[in-house]
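Dear colleague,

Following up on yesterday's call, I've attached the two folding results inline so they're easy to grep. Please treat them as preliminary; we haven't cross-checked anything against experimental data yet. The first protein's sequence and structure tokens come first.
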Amino acid sequence: MSPPERRSTPPVGEPGERGAGTVLVLGLGLLVVLAAVLIALLAQSAAMASRAAAAADLAALAAADVARGIAPGVPCAVAMDVAHRNGASVLSCAEGAGYAVQVRTELAVRTPLGAATGLARAGPPP
């Protein structure tokens, strides 16, 4: 008597692992999509933080110029105007000793991870 013949795939109707590869590929595909979305959110947050920091830098520099008498106006009013032109609002503006100005800004556009803020100080070295 000869040994029974072995089949590489189970016959129709018998339990097996048919379709397990499809489930694995779908799971890995979902993982790749989630990773791409997370990377996009982090990149957007980094870009927004950079924009908020740039708005704070420009506002602080303009306010320091006014404090030194190089440009006309009131330092914090000029800082608010410059920040507004850069898509941000001024959260705080403080004039310090020696023509120093510190400005904190927040972008008008919010990200899913929160508001982007920037902080800058302009003036002579401390």
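Below is the second protein, in the same order (sequence, then structure):
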Amino acid sequence: MSYNSLYRAIHSEAKLLGLKEIRVHDLRHSCASMLANAGCDYEQIKAFLGHNDVRVTLNIYTHLYPHKFDDIANKIDKLVNTSVEENKQN
């Protein structure tokens, strides 16, 4: 489907349903959000959206991954606790 066809479809359906019109680009952002929430990583989203460089994806969609920092903190905590337990046993 071409950009213009998609734009016309969105415009006519939104008008018919009495909804606020969204931009085609908003669909890309929604898609990226759903992929991030489904657990896809940046490389997968980059490839799906057709970005040439993962930095483009990171610059646009980093805010979709706030839970990743919690994951990292939990992994570090687990590593530290494992090391402490191993040292206690030795």
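For the second protein, one point worth flagging: The chain is about 75% helix and 0% strand.

Best wishes,
A.L.
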